Amino acid sequence: MRRRHHAAAQSVRAAIGAGLLGLAAIAWPVAAFADIRVMCYQDGNECDVTADLIKRYEARNPGAKVLLDVVPYKTVVEQLPIQLAAGQGPDIARVAEVGGLSKNYLDIGPHLKDRKVWEANFASTLPWMRSKAGDTGIYGFLSQMTMTGPFVNKTLFEQAKVPLPGPKATWDEWALAARKVAKATQTPAAIAWDRSGHRFAGPAISFGAAIFDAQGRLAMDDGYKAAVRKFVGWHKDGTMLKDVWGGSGGSSYADTIGEFKNGRVVMVLSGSWQINRLQKEIGNAFDWVAVPNPCGPAACSGMPGGAAWVALKTTRSPKEVAQFLDFMAQEPNQAEWISRTNNIPAHAGVAKKGVAYPSAGPAAQAALAVFTSGTATLAPAAYRLQGYKYNRALMLPTVTRVTQAIVGEISVDEAVTKIGTDMAEAVKQAER
């Protein structure tokens, strides 16, 4: 077994914690270090909880050694790809751009105790880590799921004496109810969606967009056009808060939570990652709830997302990497990790049994439960789009062109045509 000198480990940790490591300083040494080295970023306490599980893993496996390096998210995004391109890197990393680094992933399938357990519990997301069609490798697992979905100002509904639509309500039914609330309470707008092609994709799929053609290529169709027409129409009739999409140019991102917490909109489409922010920033100002994704003619879908633990080809210990990831993926460990980090489970067994969130407040707990149960309504096309390595070729032009239609520069038909043209060119460029 290779051992890492503790003084060296402490110095690396200290440098990372101080944010002082440049690319050369965090090059991953080749000899005489830990059996498994894990690069981890955290939005909240994900790495802290992982550290506790590592202690348990090492106690149960005498001689095993796992070194956890906690780094800023920027390090994972900007420096890890450079390291991997140079043939350096950790054994395992926590990544959010799951498909983008797939050529660097190591297939741990041959070293797992029972790959069928993985295939049963992570069936929908294992393909996100595969780089080509027909690939059946197992390269890691989604540590947690995120999902797009709506938040509603419940206090405004109560003040307007308008009942909340039910769990299978359509987008049209929600728009009608939210308009009534906005009018009765003098709220500036009924609905707003994050300025994001990712957020737009869930409703588009619900309205019938297939996203891919028979050859597996991104494609525009009548369902996507119907979503664009509906969305632009809502902006023109005042249902939508125009400031979010109409307030920026190009494909830049803008979320809706600032408008929501300030009481300027009744209902927003954002996502599960905003729950902790809502709990913190709204406090007792008003009651808010997460609600299931509204339905269209084809589905009641949002879009999935998340972060993954992935095995990397730079490892010299593939069996040990597989053993550790096998441990982390076990249902009891996943349940604990999800519960303590206030995340949505990507593990089907954990999601089915439900998760308790003792550190979350009542509103946050209820919202987490809504999003967890909502993963069952995600359409297959949503999973496929999220795992597609060129998905930004659709998402970015959608924001640019739909905004042009909203502000009156082009028509809906022109917007859809231009999205298709931009999308095809972006994929062509990416494949070169």
Structure, described:
This protein is α/β, with parallel strands linked by helices. The chain has 2 domains: 6-145 and 305-362, Periplasmic binding protein-like II (D-Maltodextrin-Binding Protein, domain 2, 3-Layer(aba) Sandwich), CATH 3.40.190; 147-303 and 372-431, D-Maltodextrin-Binding Protein, domain 2, CATH 3.40.190.10. The protein is 46% helix and 12% strand. Strands 1, 2, 3, 4, 5, 6, 7 and 8 form an 8-stranded mixed beta sheet that branches. Helix 2 (46-60) links the parallel strand 1 (36-40) and strand 2 (66-70). Helix 5 packs across helix 6. Residues 1-33 have low confidence and may be disordered.
Secondary-structure map with pairings?
Blueprint (H helix, E strand, L loop, with lengths): L5 H12 L18 E5 L5 H15 L5 E5 L2 H13 L6 E4 L19 H7 L18 E14 H7 L10 H15 L3 E5 L3 H10 L15 H15 L5 H5 L10 H5 L3 E7 L3 H8 L5 E3 L13 E8 L6 H12 L1 H11 L6 H6 L8 H13 L5 H8 L4 H15 L5 H20 L1
Parallel strand pairs: 1-2, 1-3, 5-6
Antiparallel strand pairs: 3-8, 4-6, 4-7, 4-8
